[in-house]
Every structure is written in C-alpha cells, then in structure tokens.
Amino acid sequence: MTTRHFTAADLEILKRWDTPTICNGLELVAPERRAIGFTVEPMIAVDRKLPPIVGVARTGLIRAKEKPRGPIPSREDWYDYVAAADLPTIAVLQDIDDRPGYGAFWGEVQSTVHWGLGVLGCVTNGSFRDLDMIAAGFQIIGGRIGPSHAHVHMVQMRCEVNVFGMLARDDDVIHADFHGAVIIPAEAVKKLPDAIELVARREKAILDVARAPGFTSAKMREALKRAGEIH
After folding, report:
1. Do residues 176 and 139 touch, judged by C-beta distance below 8 A?
2. Is there a single domain that holds both residue 165 and residue 78?
3. CA dist 188 to 17, 66, 203, Å?
4. What pTM, to 2 d.p., does this model score?
C-alpha cells in the first residue's frame, strides 16, 4: 500500500493557485526541479474558466494513426486503473504517433465516463474533440483540437510518459490549468502553501511600488532590497 505524505484535503488547498504560482512555490521548496517537471509547449484548455485541477497521475500511451499492432490494454482495465479512490485522479496520456493528435481519445463519451469515475481531467499532447459536449467540469489540457478519433487506442498504461517535456509516472501529483501542467513532488505538497505565501509577500513589495505614482528605477532598487529581506 502506498504511503502518502498528504491527503485529499491537502490537494484541494492547492486548487487556490494557478499553475505558474505553484511553479513559483516549487522554486523554494524543491529548487533542484526549477527547470524540470513541467510542460514546455503551448497547450489548449477545453475551458479556460475552470479552476486548476490537482490529483494523482494515471498514465498511458496512446496512438491513433494505425490499427493496433498487437495485444493492447482493455478499456475496462484502464477504467479500473483511473477510477478515483482515496485521492482524485488525472489522466496523463502521451500520444506516440509521429503526428500526435492524429486521432482524438477525448470527446463527449470519454470525458463523461472519466468524470463519472472521479477523474478531474486530462493532460495530453494528443487531441480532443466534441468541444460543446465535453462533460461539464472535466478539464482537458491538450495539444490540439481535431475532428476524428481515427484508430485511437491504448498502447500501454501505468508507465512513464512524456507530455511536452513533462516526464510523469503513475501516482505523481499533477497540478494543471490553461497555462500547462507541473509535477509536485509528494514531499512538497504540504510545504507549498507557506512557500507561496512567502513568494506573494516578496512580489507585493515590488508590485506596490511599481503601481504607485512617481515610480522610478531608484525606487525599484529599494523595493528589490525590501523584497529580498522578507523571510
């Protein structure tokens, strides 16, 4: 049984902040990951107005350009795997076609099924469709929009995936919104709120001066010094 460093309530707290803010906090609590662990290509959100999603990764490889070349995981096994239990889940799918997104895994049916199983959304380099029929509340952060599902099928599940530079594994904590996605190390989950508050205080010292009348570069120097003294 997996030993957790956090609870569902801890993940819920992290929905208060957007993904860039989470990245800011990680720079303090996990500085060794400053340049890794997040998506590095532009992505499309099915609904920019939805709040961030935070959950544990359920990973898989998909392709759509050709029919399956051999045995593949069953959809039933995938559904058993992604279904939320003690923690909410996020599907993280890498499309391994030579042209990712050739066929869409995500649309009305899959979003509805996954939402019903407690999956908050998906992060993928692949495509999605049925924009007006996606399950309400289900967020997709994907690579593109396309009209067909072609021969889309699962190739492997519960494996390491690479979604636009973000290397994710089963059970990784994922935070995502319309900016993209980032992995939160398990040991950092509970540390992030305090770190984010510290970053906010430091930024406020700068922003207040920059927004005030009579702002000058000399005042900027003073503000930077004050920000650096906030602990």
Report:
1. yes
2. yes
3. 15, 41, 21
4. 0.95
